[in-house]
Amino acid sequence: MTTRTAPGRARSLSEVPGWFRAIDQDLFRVLLETTGRTPGDLLEMGCYLGKSAILLGEHLREGETFTVCDLFGVESHGLYSRRDTLAFYRETLTREAFEANYLNFHEDLPVIVHARTTALASRIAPGSCRFVHIDASRTYEDVSGDIDIARSVLRKDGVVAIDDYRTEHVPGVAAAVWEAVFTKGLRPVCLSAAKLYATWGEPEPFQQAVRAWATDRVDRVVVDEKIDGDPVLRVLNALPGPSGARRLALELLPPVVSRALVRPKTGR
Ligand SMILES: C[S@@+](CC[C@H](N)C(=O)[O-])C[C@H]1O[C@@H](n2cnc3c(N)ncnc32)[C@H](O)[C@@H]1O
């Protein structure tokens, strides 16, 4: 979480509060450019103070619509997975703060749906979007519904990014994501530590774009994995210097070998 800067005062994206990591900013850029070869709309479920929305807005082209949806701190039974999460949002989040941050980077606001994400089903035209970011509620029921909305509003070669797909304290997100992969035809493209990127179309062209981007980056690494026989890319940070090499070895080697690498040295 970035330290607080007054709404509308950030000089760069890194000063906008939020949890949107640099590696995901990179992946958003690659996938937004790839999907942007044909016009289509953008949708974000859960915008908080605008960190990821500001980046999405950078990729909005002439004639496309960008919609964000958030509760902006409004309480309603069962909307948040945890009471402490709701208390945190009430203290830090207002629609005005989101708007001030967004307008600090862009001339026009996106379309704002100030409601639960369930309201989107009747607001966004089926097949109209090229990119959807799911980053709102963390309950299984809500995320499963959000994925269903994404499936309906995305065009076939669109991409969905889903936050917290493997975070320990929000198991409902993982449940909804893997349910979609195994029963709703969702096909993973790549994974970062925080987000899963997937499509209901062909993952391969997006995976090619991710590989092409990674070849020019010494600070990022792409590792090939498979899920039930289908290729998926794991994208991670490469730390510079010898510790980077060790970290990479730990990430890439099979568990038995990597356990040997982390075993503490015994005195002789
Ligand atoms: C993790 S934050 C989003 C972070 C933001 N995408 C970023 O990268 O900075 C989650 C947001 O989802 C909103 N939210 C939670 N449950 C929601 C729901 N059921 N419908 C709409 N918004 C919701 C919260 O108000 C909060 O602003």
Written description of the protein model:
A 9-stranded mixed sheet has the order 3-2-1-4-5-7-6-9-8, with helices on both faces. 37% of the residues lie in helices and 21% in strands. The chain has helices at residues 22-35, 51-58, 83-92, 95-103, 140-153, 171-183, 204-215, 241-252, 255-262, and strands spanning 41-45, 66-70, 111-114, 129-134, 154-163, 187-191, 195-199, 220-227, 230-237. The chain is globular and about 45 Å long. The chain has one domain (13-218): Vaccinia Virus protein VP39 (Rossmann fold, 3-Layer(aba) Sandwich), CATH 3.40.50.150. It starts with 21 loop residues before the first helix and ends in a 6-residue tail after the last helix. It has 268 residues and is of the alpha/beta class. The structure holds S-adenosylmethionine. Residues 18-20, 46-48, 51-52, 69-71, 79-80, 89, 93, 116-117, 135-137, 142 line the site of S-adenosylmethionine.
Write the topology of this structure.
Elements: H1 22-35, E1 41-45, H2 51-58, E2 66-70, H3 83-92, H4 95-103, E3 111-114, E4 129-134, H5 140-153, E5 154-163, H6 171-183, E6 187-191, E7 195-199, H7 204-215, E8 220-227, E9 230-237, H8 241-252, H9 255-262
Parallel strand pairs: 1-2, 1-4, 2-3, 4-5, 6-9
Antiparallel strand pairs: 5-7, 6-7, 8-9
Helix pairs in contact: 1-7, 5-6, 8-9
Bound molecules: S-adenosylmethionine.
S-adenosylmethionine (SAM) binds at residues 18-20, 46-48, 51-52, 69-71, 79-80, 89, 93, 116-117, 135-137, 142.
